[in-house]
Amino acid sequence: MAGRGTDIILGGNPKMLAKEIVEDNVLPFLSHDTPDVETEGESTSHKGLSKIKLGPSSLALLAKAAIMAKYVHKSESNEWSFQKAKSAVMESIEMSNTIGLEKLQERVAEVTEMYPLCDAIALAYATVLKDCEIHCFDEGAEVKTLGGLHVIGTSLHESRRIDNQVRHS
């Protein structure tokens, strides 16, 4: 197949979807700045064709992370920029990928009432990711059942070899 382009992931990318869901639910509470669409890009979850069904635990953890973000935002004396807020969310997501769900649950269990914002966001991301993985797997299976993707049109490429690969695959 003609490589070196964008790979199509049947069903979607669960990590990207989970990141978008967490950002959409937490960022508005951390910063009142609006993102610059030219540098930050448009939120991709609003472009999705299907709705992801989040489980009750994911919804609860997202709500808790949002409440904690609101608390942190109000308790800080200076306003967080959108970039600082997004950076904090990204650090939390990286921590979630590094530590894992079990360790995050242990860390949260150690503190009774309030736990650090990064842990709250990381735990919310980990549970949302599980829901997104199920959703993407189901959608990918549905596409495969229906016969996969079919090329219905191409534009000319500077390489005739690539044109032929796309048209005859």
Structural domains: how many:
1
Overall helicity: 55-70%
The biggest beta sheet reads:
none
General shape = elongated
- Assess the beta-strand content as a share of residues: under 5%
The string of secondary-structure elements, in order, is: HHHHHHH
Rg estimate, integer Å: 20 Å
Q: Helix/strand-derived class?
A: mainly alpha
Residue ranges: pLDDT <50 for 5 or more in a row?
Answer: none
- Figure out the total of helices: 7
Strand element count: 0
State mean pLDDT (0 to 100 scale). 78
Distance between the termini: 7 Å
Task: Please characterize this protein's 3D structure.
One of its GO terms (molecular function) is ATP binding. One of its GO terms (cellular component) is chloroplast envelope. Keywords: ATP-binding, Membrane, Nucleotide-binding, Protein transport, Translocase, Translocation, Transport. There is one protein chain. The chain is mainly α. It has one domain (14-167). Helices cover 63% and strands 0% of the residues. It has seven helices and no strands. Helix 1 runs parallel beside helix 3, helix 1 packs antiparallel against helix 6 (117-145) and helix 4 packs across helix 6.
Describe the protein's topology.
Blueprint: H1 14-30, H2 37-40, H3 56-75, H4 82-99, H5 101-110, H6 117-145, H7 160-167
